[in-house]
Amino acid sequence: MKSRFAYALFGALAVLTLIATMGQARVARAQSVDPAAKLELPEGFADDLAPNAVQDQRVRQYLYPKRIVATSQTGVKNAELLLKPVLGQTSTSHMSDQSRACTLSKGGYVLLDFGCEIHGSFRVEARDLKPGKSSVGRTVQLRVRFGESVDEANSEVGQKGAVNEHSTRDQIIAVPWLGAVECGESAFRFVRIDLVDDDAEILFDSARAIFIYRDLPRLGQFKSSDERLNKVWDVSARTMLLTMQQYVFEGAKRDRLVWYGDFTPQTMTALRVYGDSKVLRDTLGYYARETWELPQWMNGMPNYSLWWLITIGDLYRHTGDPELVKEQWEYVTGLVEQLLPYVGKDGKAGFPNPFLDWPTNDKPEALKAGTHAMFALGFDRVAEMAQVVGDSEMEKLAKETAALVRTYAPSNVGNKQAAALLELAGIEKEGESNVATVAKNGPENFSTFYGYYMLEALSKGGEDQVALDVAREYWGAMIDRGATTFWEDFDLKWLENAGRIDEPTPEGLESLHGDRGAYCYIGLRHSLCHGWASGPAAWISAHILGVTPIEPGFKKTLVKPFLGDLDWIEGSVPTPYGQIKIRCDKQADGTIKTKVDAPKEIEIVQ
User: Which DSSP letter does residue 587 get?
Assistant: First the structure.
C-alpha cells in the first residue's frame, strides 16, 4: 500500500471512529469513577439536568509557564510576569498599569514553555485592552499556537507538515475586556501567543495551561542504579497517562482516536503502571463492541480485530476477572467465526491485505509472517478465555487451531517486526533464529510501536541484557534531545545534523521534528506523545522486576528479576489484590539478594 493511499484510508477510518456513543460498562476491581453511581448535581439543578448529565472522569489543574522561550524584539513588555502566580481573576485596581502586566502591541508575541508535555487547553485572562480593526466589540484577537516542540509552536499550518487535525493547534481567539478565554484541547509543551491586529493592544493578567488528565496513581513503580533507565520508565508512564482521556487514545495530539492494532503496548503499560482502570475496560470493551459491530473488522482492518482478541486476553490474564470475559464472549465467538476461514488446512494463516506497522508496510513477506504469528497468539487467548465461561467446544477448537497454525513456519525474512511476533508465538523456521534477527545491531530498524514486541521477544529468547541496552539507547536518545514523552516513531539516524525539540533549531541544523518522519507522520504532523511508544515501562515491569502472572489475576506469580549490569532495582507491580513489591541488590560476590512483599492471596514462585 502506497503511503499516500494508506494515509487517505486511515483518514477515512479515523472519521468513522468518531461515530460512537458514550456508554457504561460494568467494572470489577477497577479504578476510577463507577459508571453506575448516581451523578450528583447541585441542589436546584438536578431535576432539570440529571437526565442529560454525563460525568467527566478527568480533573483540571492550572499551570503557569516555567520559562519564556522567546519574544518579539518589539511589541512586548514584561513577558516575565507571566511566570509568576496571580489571583486567577482579573483585577480592576490597576487596569492600565503596564508595569503590572504583560503587554502585547504591534508585532508582539511571546513563546511559553510549560516544562514538559501535557494534555489540556490554554486560558488567557485580560486586564485591559484596546480593540483593533478586526475586533468584534470590546475584544482583541490573539493567535494561539500549541507545539509539542518549539518548531511546531512557531510553524504555519502546512509548513513542514504542520496540521490542524484531530486537535486545533493553531487558532485565533477573541479575548474580551476584563475577561478570559479558554482554547484547546490538545497535547503540547509550548504555546505561542501573537497579537493579530497591528492597531490593537492587550494587557495580560495571566496566560496559563489547563492540565486535563485522569487522576490515576502510579501503583506500579520502578527505580534502579541507572538514572537513564529510571527516566525511560518515568517518560513511558507519563506518555501513557496523557493518552488516557475520554477513552484511551492512540496519541494525545494526533490521533485522538482509538486504534485497536496499536493497543497492546498501551494496555500492558496501563496495567503495569496504573492498574486496572475503567477507561481501559471501556475502551477495550464497550467502545469496541458498540463501534465495530460484527462483521466489521475493528478500524476496518482484519489485523486490528486480531490484535483486539490478543489484548482482551491479556487484560484477563492481568485482572483475572471472569465478568470481563463473560461481557466480551459473544463478540469473541463471533470474531472467531470470522477468523477461521483465514486459516488454511496446511496451517498457513493470513489476510489479503495485512498490516503490522508503517515501516513493514512495503515488505509483503514480513507482513505475512507477522500476521501468521498473530493467529497463533490470538487463538491461545481464546482457549484461555473459553475455560472461564466453560465453553469446552470453543476451547478445543481454539487449541486445535493454534496448534495447526504452528505447524507452518514462515521465514522472518530478516525483519525485526516479523521475527519478534514469531518469537513470541513460539514459531521458528529451521535454521533461522528469530531472537538473533531482533538482536542484530541493537536498536537498528526499531520502531517505537513494535519496539515493545522486540523487547519482549529479546527477553523470551534469553537476551535480557541486549533488551536493556536497547531500551537505554533507543528510548533514551529521545530524552537526550528534549523529549518528555515518547514519539509516534523514531530512528537513531534522525539525530544526524538535527537540533533539539525544546529550542528553536539553530541555523545549519535540521529540525528533529519538522524535517524527520515518514509515511503518515511526516514532519510536524508527527505525534510526540504516542501511547504505543510507552512499551518500555511494561517490559521493565515484566522482565527487569521480573513479575509475571502464572495464573490469571496474579493468583500465582513468577518473580524472576534481571539485574544484568545494574547494581540494584526496586519497584512495585499492581495486582487485583494489591501491590507486589520487590527490592534486589547485587552483592559483592555477584549474587543477588531479593526481597519480595506480596499480598497474602498471591502465591509467589521464585
Answer: -
Note the pLDDT of residue 23: 32
Distance CA 226, CA 567 (A): 8
Task: Evaluate whether 184 touches 114 at the Cβ level (below 8 Å).
Answer: no
**Rounded distance, CA 483 to CA 465, Å?**
24
The one-letter amino acid code at 388 reads V
Backbone torsion region of residue 232, taken as left when φ is above 0, otherwise alpha when ψ lies between -120 and 50, otherwise beta: alpha
- What number of helices (H) and strands (E) belong to the chain? 17, 16
Reported as a single tens digit per residue, the pLDDT across 121-137 is 999 999 999 999 999 99
Cα distance between residue 232 and residue 537, in whole Å: 8
Reported as a single tens digit per residue, the pLDDT across 168-199 is 999 999 999 999 999 999 999 999 999 999 99
CA–CA gap between residue 21 and residue 41 (Å, rounded): 22
Here the cell at position 429 is: 523456521
DSSP 286: I
Distance CA 433, CA 423 (A): 9
Query: By C-alpha distance, which of 508, 506, 530 is closest to 520?
Result: 530
* Alpha-carbon gap, residue 501 to 149, rounded angstroms: 5
What is the reported pLDDT for 28? 30
Q: Residue 164's CB: how many other CB atoms inside 10 A?
A: 13
- On average, the pLDDT of the chain sits at 92
Q: Is the pTM of this model over 0.85?
A: yes
pLDDT digits (tens, 9 = 90+) for 204-220: 889 999 999 999 999 99
Reading the block at residue 316, the C-alpha cell is: 484477563
Element (H or E) spanning 539, and its range?
Answer: helix 535-539
Sign of the alpha-carbon dihedral angle for 548, 554, 558, 563: positive
What whole-number distance in Å separates Cα of residue 16 and Cα of residue 11?
9
**Residue with C-alpha cell 526481597?**
595
**Distance set, CA 37 to CA 54, 230, 283, 544 (Å):** 11, 38, 19, 39
Per-residue pLDDT band at 235 (split at 50, 70, 90): very high
CB 570 within 8 A of CB 584: yes
Residue 517's CB is within 10 A of a number of other CB atoms, namely 23
Q: What percent of the chain has pLDDT over 70?
A: 93
| 473/451 Cα distance (integer angstroms) | 12
Q: Write out pLDDT tens, residues 462-503.
A: 999 999 999 999 999 999 999 999 999 999 999 999 999 999
Which candidate, 283, 277, 268, places its Cα nearest to that of 216? 277
Decide if pLDDT at 14 tops 80: no
pLDDT value of residue 478: 98
Q: Do 368 and 362 touch, CB atoms closer than 8 A?
A: no
**What does the block give as the cell for 417?**
517486526
d(CA 346, CA 349): 9
Residue 548 burial class via C-beta count within 10 angstroms: exposed 0-12, middle 13-18, buried 19 and up: middle
Pairing of strands 603-605, 556-559: parallel
